[in-house]
Amino acid sequence: MSEPQNEKESPAFRPGSDTPFLVGLGILGGSYAIIILAMILADLAYVDRDSMLGALRSPEIHYSIVLSLLSCTLSTILSLWVAVPLGYLTSRFDFPGKRFLDTVLDIPIVLPPLVIGISLLALFNFAPFSWTSEWVVFEIPAVILAQFMVACAFATRAMRISFDQIPQRYEKVALTLGCNRGKAFRLVVMPQAKQGIVAAGTLAWARSLGEFGPILVFAGSTRMRTEVLPTSVYLEIQAGNLKGALAVSLIMIVAAAAVLATSRIMGMKRMEP
User: Fold this and answer.
1) Phi, then psi, of 125 in degrees rounded to 5
2) Domains of the chain: which residue ranges?
3) Separation between Cα atoms, residue 221 and residue 233, nearest integer Å
4) CA-to-CA distance for 147 and 261, rounded, in angstroms?
5) What pLDDT, on the 0 to 100 scale, is given for residue 3?
6) How far apart are CA 54 and CA 8, in angstroms?
7) What CATH architecture is 49-265?
8) 233: Cα separation from own chain's centroid
9) What pTM was computed for the model?
10) For the CA atoms of the chain, what is the radius of gyration?
11) Is the peptide bond before 191 cis (omega within 30 degrees of 0)?
12) What is the pLDDT of residue 13?
């Protein structure tokens, strides 16, 4: 039977406005970005022109900038050299001890950086590492090694995510066409992983630039020897020169921003699966 004509029809469901939800997201997310910008503006407001020019003209800061650029670049190259095969191995294969390996690789991410430096210092008291400690500990190689130990963990995690996003069917097709695993990796996987490599390299370089704890313990903070930009900030604060420390901090901010901007220009974007 049909329903009575005089019975009122139920009103159609109408979802509420999305505006409160979006405003809440904007407030929560935007507040963090605003704080970051406010800190940078505070640095700019506090540092006067003379302090900035003094930092840029200082031979110690010149040495620190050059050593930072060289050490960060070398540690990034080493990180990618290790992160690419490790990321591919943990992404594509299941093997006994994989979970243990994943845990070990994440240790430098969760540990305080200072502990990494202390552990490196202890490691070079035992053979065969002790045989080279005279040329490594408290020397420039210690700076690169300290940066590498932390940056490589982040690069490895980034590379694994990149390889996870690349479909395996392309490799399988290459294998059925006669390629071995190494050739398929070189010709099929690596071209698709370029954006991931740029992302991992950028992350490793930026992480190396900001590394302080392991360098301070394992390489020291000797002027014109093992001084990099983070230790320059520390030495300026120790000398009571807050404006000089902030000037060096601004140099680090500019360097990090330049690297990130370059990576964006080179086409670093999220890879589609």
Assistant:
1) -95, -5
2) 49-265
3) 10
4) 22
5) 52
6) 81
7) Orthogonal Bundle (1.10)
8) 20
9) 0.83
10) 25
11) no
12) 60
CA trace torsion 27, 267, 229, 60 (10° rounding): -140
Q: CA quadruple 71, 114, 109, 42: dihedral positive or negative?
A: negative
Query: Hey, how many other C-beta atoms are within 10 angstroms of the C-beta on 156?
Result: 27
% helix / strand / coil in the chain, to the nearest 5?
Answer: 75, 0, 25
Give the position of tokens 């035992």.
Answer: 126
**What pLDDT, on the 0 to 100 scale, is given for residue 149?**
93
Give me the DSSP letters along 65-86: HHHHHHHHHHHHHHHHHHHHHH
C-alpha span between 142 and 124 (Å, rounded): 11
Tokens 């650029």 appear where? 69
Distance, first Cα to last Cα, the chain: 54
175, two tokens: 């294998």
Q: Are 211 and 230 in contact (CB under 8 A)?
A: yes
Q: How far is residue 40's CA from residue 46's CA, in Å, rounded to a whole number?
A: 10
| Ranges of residues in the chain whose predicted pLDDT is under 50 | 1, 268-273
Specify the DSSP element, H or E, that contains 90: helix 59-92
Per-residue pLDDT, 220? 87
Residue 211 token pair: 């590394």
Q: Give the relative orientation of helices 59-92 and 242-265 as an angle to the nearest 10 degrees.
A: 40
User: Could you tell me the CA-to-CA distances from 227 to 12, 68, 175 in Å, in that order?
Assistant: 70, 8, 50
The C-alpha atoms of residue 23 and residue 125 are separated, in whole angstroms, by 56
What lies within 8 Å, CB to CB, of 36 at 6+ separation is none
CA dist., res. 204 & res. 210, Å (int): 10
